[in-house]
Specification:
Elements (H helix, E strand, L loop, with lengths): L1 H5 L2 E4 L6 H31 L6 H30 L3 E3 H34 L4 H4 L2 H26 L9 E2 L6 H6 L6 H34 L4 H29 L11 H22 L2 H16 L1
Parallel strand pairs: 1-3
Antiparallel strand pairs: 1-2
Helix pairs in contact: 2-3, 2-10, 3-4, 3-10, 4-6, 4-8, 4-9, 6-8, 8-9, 9-10
Length: about 300
């Protein structure tokens, strides 16, 4: 306990290599972060200014874009700065805060993907009841419920992780304070923490993924039964875009958190975690919205209005 209370900072040693590689990583992370922020802000603005996009689907997309900006901002700027300046130290409180918000936004994103899959299921499989089922009140409750679930998970994960003792061992084999990497740095018996991580994260990941894949299973059946080839192509192209990001997000997250011994080899998670913490938030504006005809139409309309002004 004495060693635990004296711990004031950690050292993040993930991707600690040649100085030239560090500069390259800094440039790469900075570029991806800028693209993430600009892309998601553009999506938010397009949805806000165009009345035709004020529907449940785009309400969720707007909230997803906001979430992705927050999610990426928790990790990417600090990592890019650390690579560039070599400042890999992070305070005990800063590490706990980073873990808390990373877990909050990551868990919330998993629930958002499930909510958006249910929204598409309702729109395609029950189009006549869509406006009745997906009321404004239900949409707001779904968003609030997603954040509440994220708060519960991050409070449990952060509380259990920082109740461990570290015995002067300050190095974390990661580029941010990821749960499994911090657990691995502890000198305590981490079996309980690994079981808690598996018991809490496992049902969340499996449950939200199940909602997603069951929803898209029914969507696929409905699309196949559509009489018009054009309507089938339009619906399928939208679903395939969604499924690309869903598979990327849930595939990497499942590998990280929903298997026994997830904390036993944190070195493997450095590269993989880049996908769901940095790459996915960067790609979401393109996959979810820019390939959508309605959003592209709204964007062209706004550009024409600006040109005439």
């Amino acid at each position: 306990m004495e060693n635990h209370t004296r711990m004031s900072e950690f050292i993040l040693v993930g991707f600690n290599s040649h100085p030239g590689s560090q500069v390259l990583l800094s440039v790469l992370f900075s570029t991806m972060y800028i693209v993430t922020v600009v892309g998601n802000v553009c999506m938010i603005l397009i949805i806000r200014v165009d009345p035709s996009l004020h529907t449940p689907m785009y309400f969720f997309l707007e909230n997803l874009s906001t979430l992705d900006i927050c999610y990426s901002s928790v990790i990417t700027p600090r990592a890019a700065l650390a690579f560039l300046l070599g400042r890999r130290r992070i305070s005990y409180a800063g590490c706990a805060s980073q873990m808390f918000f990373f877990s909050l936004f990551g868990t919330t994103e998993a629930f958002f993907l499930a909510v958006m899959a249910y929204d598409r299921f309702t729109a395609i499989c029950n189009p006549l009841l869509y406006q009745v089922i997906m009321s404004r009140r239900l949409c707001v409750l779904m968003v609030m419920g997603s954040y509440l679930s994220g708060c519960i998970n991050c409070a449990i994960q952060t509380g259990f992780t920082f109740s461990l003792s570290f015995c002067g061992h300050r190095e974390i084999n990661h580029f941010f304070c990821e749960v499994a990497a911090v657990i691995h740095a502890s000198c305590s018996d981490t079996l309980v923490n690994e079981l808690v991580m598996l018991a809490v994260c496992g049902p969340i990941i499996v449950g939200t993924a199940l909602v997603v894949f069951v929803s898209y299973g029914y969507i696929t059946i409905t699309i196949i039964q559509m009489p018009s080839a054009e309507s089938r192509h339009k619906a399928f192209s939208t679903c395939s875009s969604h499924m690309t990001t869903i598979c990327l997000f849930f595939g990497t997250v499942f590998f990280m958190y929903a298997q026994p011994g997830a904390a036993s080899s944190p070195s493997k998670s450095n590269t993989i975690s880049i996908f769901y913490t940095i790459v996915v938030p960067m790609l979401n504006p393109f996959i979810y919205t820019l390939r959508n005809r309605e959003v592209k139409g709204a964007l062209k309309k706004q550009l024409k209005m600006k040109r005439f002004c």
